[in-house]
Amino acid sequence: MAFEFRITNNLAPGDLTKFGPLIKGRVALPTSKSPNDGVGGVFILDTGASGSSIDQSVADELGLKPTRTTTGHGLGGETEIKCYRVMIFIPAVPLLMKDFPPGALAVLGMPQEVGSVAGLHEGHEATLGKPPGRLIGLLGRSFLQFTRTTYDGLTGTITIEADQTMRDPKLDGPSTL
After folding, report:
1. 29: number of CA atoms within 13 Å, CB side?
2. Between these two residues, 81 and 13, which has the higher pLDDT value?
3. Which end of the chain is more exposed for a tag (fewer CB within 10 A), N or C?
4. Quick one: CA dihedral 60, 35, 134, 170, positive or negative?
5. pTM, 2 dp
6. CB 166 within 8 A of CB 106
7. How far, in Å, are 9, 20, 30, 60, 65 from residue 111 at the CA level?
């Protein structure tokens, strides 16, 4: 398998341990083509979530309308989750594109169906302290299935290598938190 993109974030090793693996990105309307659209911040990588979620405040800020609701299951029991279609943009280094200069950044635009979590950022901050950026969502296994992810706790580095299917993922259901 040839990886097409590399996503890297360097945190202080203590921050990686405290806040978990975070990567920069944006959430935008599902029809968006511009990586500057939408709401910017950080996503936490969540191997315990089957799908991806955004903070409900992001959905409200974008004026999104739910496409459906589903029941989520997690440590807090069952909860009703609103689902939205969005475009997620993540800066990445292209590995196989010959027309990109070495080290140049591209932006992956990925259509996703996500669930929403009310107070995700505030809850994370109240529990762990202020993260390095606004926590706009979490990326679960529906995102991670297209990647090889390295968590380097000694240096505080997260490296994600993604193949071509990252650009056109199947639209799985939302996270079951």
Report:
1. 10
2. 81
3. N
4. positive
5. 0.86
6. no
7. 22, 24, 7, 18, 16
